[in-house]
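Incident log, structure service

09:12 report received: a user says their structure output differs between two submissions of the same chain.
09:20 pulled the input from the user's history:
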Amino acid sequence: MISFDYLTLNAFFEENKDFFKGARLQKIQQPTRRDFLLTIRGYETRKLYINIDPQVYHVCFVSDETYSKRNITIPQKPPMFCMLLRKHLEGFRIVEVKVPPYERIFEIYFESYNELNEKIKLCLAVELMGKYSNVILYNCDTNLIIGCAHNVGAEKSRDRELSGTLPYVYPPQQSKADILRYFGVLNYDSLNDDFMGFSKAFQQQLKRNTVSLEKIKDYISLNSKISPALNDKEFSVYSELLDSPTVSDSVNDMIDNYFSSWQEKIIMRALRLKLKNIVYPLYKKQKTLISKLSAQLDKKDNASKYKKYADLIVANLYNNEDYVSSVTVHDWESGEDIVIPLDKDSTLKENSQRYYMLYSKSKSAVEKLVSLRAEAHELCDYYDGILYAIESASSLLSLYEILYECEDAGIVKKQENRPKTKDVNIEETDINGFKVYIGKNNKQNDLIVSKLSSSDDLWFHTHNCPGSHILLKVTDNKTPDDGTILECCKLAKKHSSASESTKIGVIYTKRKYLKKPPKSNLGYVTYKNEQEVIV
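09:34 re-ran on a clean worker, output below:
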């Protein structure tokens, strides 16, 4: 990811300055302490998004699509700084906007009124400077700060303190030259250190394309034709500086699409890690429990032996004496003589009853252990499926579906006011004229089986392996051929944790042979009349 630089800010300013002038600030919202949303009404209504996070600091107008990518959630109780901005700015007119030369500061000037109903001029200064990014409101008449998003005291900065009632001053001037007044030889490796207005990313783009000094001056002064573009790694207001560029309709669209994609990746990475840290210990706990139960089963699996001893004692009751420590009897199953240990203080009949009692207890213990192990296996498979869904989630919406599933299952504490999500968006594809649905998590899998399927549709899943539920829709009594079934099996393998395996079994059956047991976990089904294909 590359940073938001002066050239991009200046291009954004030139593109949108006419919209700002004379527009009114209708609404101010602050989703977090590091981002702001200003609803501005000019000849149309737009939402200005300000982000001062050190990783993704930028300013732009947001679209509905990028709004959801950024996962913007408005809190019920606004922060104090948001309330301050509403008091002084909400409903007032913007008189002008500025970008100081070679500074990453976007200044929005308002015509407002004080407590005495006197007209005053206020400035909202958006400083986009990495970890020093800030939003500051100050009075232009007195030059005193009214408030700022982050107060900066003497312990944080010896050069520039920022807090209410202090004078507002620009950041210290950098000891760099103005390239517009330079006529010497260029060193492409030190443009960022020698001249104002250059970011490291812009420096690398100029070096990669060996741009001449005159052309660089045209770029900095925006005299060259602007053609905003971006690719997978970077963006530029000049598409000719990028490799394999995708040209944007505007500078704003370029900024909005680039940074919203990165914000989505950052949010997804954090949410993915959070979910894995919650679910994986539960998965490991069930694996450990299964091992312990299996070990106990090995020790407790003496029921058949106790019953055999009791039966043999009863069968040989009149051939042996009471009150002995052991008896030797003939085992009719193995055809050999075996020695049965006895309690010498008890009769043979009492010893047989003791072995029947041990048989009964052992049988009950084994049945209980088997039941507990089956439950542990089911939970283990459920957690394993969630972990696979977390790892394979390709969108923020998918991760939130998993989070809400975990909340509903009691794995995660339920949020009191969790944000509403859109309808589940299940991936569809076409195979030889048949519509095929692909479930990416348990919520989608459950929806495919319960809502989207008909009795004759074919259901596919990897055998004994977490993965997606694949549903092949069969319509108009059209029977899918073997090639179509094989393609669906390949799709099931691709969307499973065994996607990189050399071979895996894929089972398929008709939807009418699936059953969801009562009180079972989301996405869990049993099946019969299945067939298996090795892919």
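09:41 both user submissions now match this output. Likely a transient worker issue. Closing.
09:42 reviewer note: Residues 174-248 form one domain. The chain has twelve helices and 22 strands.
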